[in-house]
Write a structure and sequence with these properties.
single chain, Rossmann fold, Quinone Oxidoreductase, Chain A, domain 1, alpha/beta, six-stranded parallel beta sheet, globular, about 30% helix, 2 domains
Length: about 350
């Protein structure tokens, strides 16, 4: 094996990323060395590319970014027990300590000592990545690597959607980003009675229909969405609202359309604290359940996602809007940050 590899790194505290040649990682006893077959650009990677305020707080260059990936194990540490060379895998983006009080109650994904690929440790925009055994998830070769690389963000959609059952329930999703679109597919496959999605990009709303949404609304063109949903439900409201956009306006609308005793899942991150929110009416007096979701449970969410994928009915491919060699990463980021926002998931091939 060669000693050097290509990697896309944040080398300096400024906008942009660089393709550089660095040493192939030396694995620790509890790690495997993974040859990356596919890796996907995430919204957080765009923050790092732009070097905005969030990025400046979150990461410290130099760093290889990327945390959504799939590939084949080419070397294993001597303490690795359950994986071998040749295994085809993906991984949760979270590296949990396994020993803190939060991990011990089954919430490893929000571990007190959490590390994330491409955030605190080198990530997947490279030919090889070192992955602790505790973060690995085995894949069947029937799942193409571009879909294997999307298991991590799809897991977020599964957790947000199915944190409580949706069977025979009406669901409205705010947000036409990749995870909102995945959530439309998850809710449909899980048996929701009706799935609606509210977004702002016409091409993404068409993708939402392909993912299973029965109805879509363009929030930039239609200022009567709340009224229409309440009219359709005879004033009752919908059973479940998934807020995946982080928009303050969407958050307000979410609580306007959820029924008494219904559920609002909050997944989208707001750019600033929400002001003037009436908890008395929106939550307490109407007994609305709020579920905050940050990522996927390790590992029950992955088990559910595996089962949904095995049905053959959950197909994330409509959300993939491009595939490029790693060397053309900059083109991928430009597709996602400029123009009419048609880009969703870009797959990079090292």
């Amino acid at each position: 094996m060669a000693e050097k590899m290509k990697a896309v790194r944040k080398t300096r505290p400024e906008p942009g990323l660089e393709l550089v040649e660095i040493d192939i990682p030396r694995i620790q006893p509890d790690e495997v060395l993974l040859k990356v077959e596919a890796t996907a650009i995430c919204g957080s990677d765009i923050h790092f590319y732009n070097w905005d305020a969030y990025a400046q707080r979150k990461i410290k260059p130099p760093l290889t970014i990327g945390h959504e990936f799939a590939g084949e194990i080419v070397a294993v540490g001597n303490a690795v027990k359950h994986y071998k060379v040749g295994d085809y895998v993906t991984a949760d983006s979270h590296i949990a300590c396994g020993n803190c009080a939060v991990c011990k109650i089954g919430l490893q994904h929000i571990c007190q000592n959490l590390k994330i690929f491409g955030n605190e440790v080198d990530g997947s925009f490279a030919e090889y990545i070192a992955v602790p055994e505790g973060s690995l998830w085995r894949l069947d070769r029937s799942i193409p690597s571009e879909i294997g690389a999307l298991m991590e963000p799809m897991g977020g959609a599964v957790q947000a959607t199915l944190i409580e059952p949706v069977t025979a329930q009406s669901v409205v999703i705010f947000g036409d980003g990749p995870i909102g679109l995945f959530a439309a597919g998850v809710a449909t496959v899980a048996g929701a009675s009706k799935v609606s999605l509210v977004g702002i990009v016409p091409s993404r709303l068409e993708v939402a229909k392909k993912m299973g949404a029965n109805t879509v609304y363009n929030a930039l063109e239609d200022k009567q969405i709340v009224e229409k949903i309440l009219d359709e439900t005879h004033g009752l409201g919908v059973d479940i609202v998934l807020e995946m956009s982080g928009s303050h306006a969407a958050l307000k609308d979410a609580f306007s359309i959820v029924r008494k005793g219904g559920r609002v899942t909050l997944f989208g991150l707001s750019p600033a604290p929400v002001q003037e929110f009436d908890f008395n009416y929106n939550v307490i007096l109407r007994q609305v359940r709020i579920r905050g979701v940050a990522g996927r449970h390790m590992w029950d969410t992955w088990q559910v996602l595996d089962g949904l994928m095995q049905t053959g009915r959950l197909d994330p491919r409509p959300v993939i809007t491009g595939e490029l060699p790693l060397e053309e990463f900059d083109q991928g980021f430009k597709q996602l940050t400029t123009g009419n926002r048609d880009g969703l998931k870009i797959i990079l091939r090292p």
